[in-house]
């Protein structure tokens, strides 16, 4: 036998090949003969100093044990498998491997996709339309309008400036109106000529009141109010 | 097999069977082809002397009412989804996006000042208007081209659509607030020049100085087109 | 339309028309796709309450004698050229290298024994399995990692994919050739001696003794990983 061990896919493959050479159904195979063939095969290649992979040697050891069990039955030992059980096991493994090989063969001989059977060659793909939904609120819209219309108002336009009495103005006016008189006078009475002008009324009142407080602080005026919301009385403070 | 051969009127049963087989083969070839199939390419697969044109016509007929049809593309044939089922192959993906400030401003001007031309929009805004922004507003369905102003250059006039009213919850374009209402809500300041006016918007019929758009008017600037033409000659 | 609805027995003409339309829609969707289509995916396009299984059965029947057949692949359906035309249409595959004998054998063992671990594959073949061969099968898209067996070392379990069914023209994994015979002889048992309960291959849900794979599980051997770790520290 000059078969290179490298041609086999493991010891089981080698055993299956040897078994097939017996040309009988695996069920009727002589396991003893098979074991002997395997062992002599391994011996041959070892004699030829070809390195043998470990699993082949493990199988050889197991088959040697099987052979001894088949030839010398050990009836006393219940834990160990009998030679017949070991032989059945080997037969099962060989049959299973062969069955898987047959199955692979059947599978690969089926009509295959892209070989005998074809899918749609030019599938029609789904086209996705992207669509934007624009979001804007009514308020955004109105504000956008107002903002840009105002932006476009010519810069030279100057709004009418309001009449404002500064504190200094108010103080000067107050001093002039009260004059040298030392009698109590209602504040609004001495301002009456200004309070009739609607655009000056508020600023006249507010500024002269604030100015009067300042003048009180400086010791130039005296203020008096006899009841809540009553008229505010004012007079020049007499110089000591 | 009788289903196919039944359509074929043949005295001889054998010929019917051969035609049936040719039909099946052609059908499979057309289905598997990566691009529209020239009938010539099917020839090696069919029986000698098969009338390919006739086979293709029979297949077209067979698929006429199906979800897929056999259609002719130039000199070649292909299976294609029936036209009325084209929607099956289209998906819509929508994305919500806020309108840009520029778009909002242009939208607002169009709403108040319509019918308004692009250069009038620019006058109000003081900046140039990109065509893209107008396109966005038209894509949104809020702005439409109304017509062309009967002035030199015949510029397109823009206006709002019913969808605009719908989106902003207006019953009519006249519901847009006027000058006093805008002042009242504080959107416009109280101090405006005396000649400051907010127009009364009108989204209705064409004005006297507007011409309707032709059906094939794509809104391009006529002056631009003209200069393009000049350039070509 | 009568061609389609003619097959449907309906008292009501409207129902017949709706069914006819559903048939056309399903036909178009299945025709347009290259990969098998899950009927669920067609649901949004059909009328409410349409019996999809029944529609698929009607389509199968309609195409039974055509050059193109509607076939079932696992849970999905696809149009494929008729199997009996294979000898005519046959082309040698150019993209894929033919599988090695070992790879073919391993594929068969995985198909018939799934879910199966690498050591069980080795037990059947009596020889070590190179990781590369498994990778070739996974790259072809025929084999997948299913999970991890809940046993010491938590080995990866392998099984076949839907593409495997499609490639080899199987309706279900139970249609594997010669499966019943193999079950009868007890040769599908991974354990020795043969079990009395003969397992059947299953490419579906995880078994009780299988854990799902983590999303980032690359299928490496856990023991190997451990020793790698040990080595690093």
UniProtKB/TrEMBL annotation, chains B, C:
Which UniProt keywords are present, listed alphabetically?
A: Cell cycle, Cell division, Chromosome partition, Cytoplasm
Q: Where is this region: Disordered?
A: 194-233
Q: Does the keyword Kinase apply?
A: no
Keyword set includes Cell membrane = no
The annotated regions of Acidic residues compositional bias extend over 205-233
The record's annotation in InterPro entries points to: ScpB_csome_segregation, WH-like_DNA-bd_sf, WH_DNA-bd_sf
Pfam families, per the entry: SMC_ScpB
Supply the name of the protein: Segregation and condensation protein B
Q: Which organism is it from?
A: Maritalea porphyrae
């Amino acid at each position: 036998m000059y078969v290179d061990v490298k041609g086999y896919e493991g010891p089981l493959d080698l055993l299956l090949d040897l078994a097939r050479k017996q040309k009988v159904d695996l069920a009727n195979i002589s396991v003893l003969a098979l074991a002997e063939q395997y062992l002599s095969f391994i011996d041959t290649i070892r004699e030829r100093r070809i390195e043998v992979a470990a699993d082949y040697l493990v199988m050889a050891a197991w088959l040697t044990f099987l052979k001894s069990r088949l030839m010398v039955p050990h009836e006393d030992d219940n834990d160990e498998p009998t030679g017949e059980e070991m032989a059945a096991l080997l037969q099962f493994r060989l049959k299973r491997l062969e069955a898987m090989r047959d199955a692979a063969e059947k599978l690969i001989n089926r009509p295959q996709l892209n070989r005998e059977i074809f899918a749609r060659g030019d599938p029609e793909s789904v086209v996705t339309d992207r669509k934007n939904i624009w979001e804007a609120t009514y308020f955004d819209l109105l504000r956008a309008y107002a903002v840009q219309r105002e932006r476009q108002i010519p810069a030279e336009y100057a709004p009418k400036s309001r009449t404002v009495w500064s504190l200094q103005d108010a103080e000067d006016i107050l001093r002039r109106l009260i004059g040298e008189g030392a009698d109590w006078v209602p504040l609004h009475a001495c301002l009456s000529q200004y309070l009739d002008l609607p655009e000056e009324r508020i600023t006249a009142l507010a500024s002269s009141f604030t100015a009067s407080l300042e003048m009180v602080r400086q010791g130039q005026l005296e203020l008096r109010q006899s009841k809540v919301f009553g008229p505010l009385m004012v007079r020049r403070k007499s110089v000591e | 097999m009788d289903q196919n051969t039944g359509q074929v009127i043949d005295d001889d049963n054998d010929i019917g069977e051969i035609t049936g087989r040719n039909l099946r083969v052609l059908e499979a070839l057309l289905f598997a082809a990566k691009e529209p199939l020239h009938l010539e390419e099917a020839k090696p697969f069919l029986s000698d002397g098969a009338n390919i044109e006739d086979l293709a016509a029979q297949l077209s007929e067979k698929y006429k009412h199906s979800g897929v049809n056999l259609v002719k593309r130039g000199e070649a044939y292909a299976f294609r989804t029936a036209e009325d089922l084209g929607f099956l192959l289209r998906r819509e993906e929508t994305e919500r996006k806020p309108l840009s400030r520029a778009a909002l401003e242009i939208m607002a001007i169009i709403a108040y000042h319509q019918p308004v031309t692009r250069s009038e929009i620019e006058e109000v805004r003081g900046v140039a208007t990109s065509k893209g922004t107008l396109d966005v507003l038209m894509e949104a369905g809020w702005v439409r081209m109304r017509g062309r102003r009967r002035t030199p250059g015949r510029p397109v006039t823009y206006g709002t659509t019913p969808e605009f009213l719908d989106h902003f919850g207006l019953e009519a374009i006249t519901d847009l607030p006027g000058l006093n209402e805008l002042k009242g809500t504080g959107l416009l300041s109280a101090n405006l020049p005396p000649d400051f006016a907010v127009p009364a918007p009108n989204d209705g019929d064409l004005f006297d100085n507007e011409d309707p758009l032709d059906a094939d008017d794509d809104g391009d600037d006529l002056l631009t087109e003209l200069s393009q033409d000049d350039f070509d000659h």
